[in-house]
């Protein structure tokens, strides 16, 4: 599964952390990664800045013909992502294994 970039995020995805997270993901995406898997199981809070990071990475992956999956968002984080409409764009998965399967099928 060399074409999947797995990113495990911890803490909060907000204005204070969004730029650093965006830069880190973009730098890793410069390689041969076609798909993006975001494990948000340890993210306790997300605001519009965090949602913007995810949407921007989704657009970049989609331009490459790839897909994105989000793994185990906490209920409060999942709610924000659903309100933002991300559930129509990306797969929400229970495990990294499930996400890897869905990204390749």
Give a short synopsis of this structure.
This protein is of the alpha/beta class. It contains four helices and four strands.
Task: Give a verbal description of the structure.
- The chain has helices spanning 18-29, 48-63, 75-83, 96-103; strands spanning 4-13, 35-46, 68-71, 91-93.
- The chain is an alpha/beta fold and 105 residues long.
- It has a single domain (4-100), classed as STAS domain (Transcription Regulator spoIIAA).
- Helix 1 (18-29) runs parallel beside helix 2 (48-63).
- The longest helix is centred in the middle third of the chain and has 16 residues, at 48-63.
> What's the number of extended β-strand segments?
4
In CATH terms, what is the fold-level topology?
Answer: Transcription Regulator spoIIAA
Structural class: alpha/beta
- Report, as a whole number of angstroms, the end-to-end distance: 12 Å
Main beta sheet strand tally, sense and closure? 4 strands, parallel
Low-pLDDT regions: none
CATH architecture tag: 2-Layer Sandwich
Shape: globular
CATH superfamily: STAS domain
Mean pLDDT: 94
User: How many distinct helices?
Assistant: 4
The tally of domains stands at 1
The Rg value, from CA coordinates, equals 12 Å
CATH top-level class:
Alpha Beta
Strand content: 25-35%
User: Considering DSSP H and I runs of 4 or more, what fraction of the residues is helical?
Assistant: 40-55%
Helix and strand element order: EHEHEHEH
Adjacency order of strands in the biggest sheet: 1-2-3-4
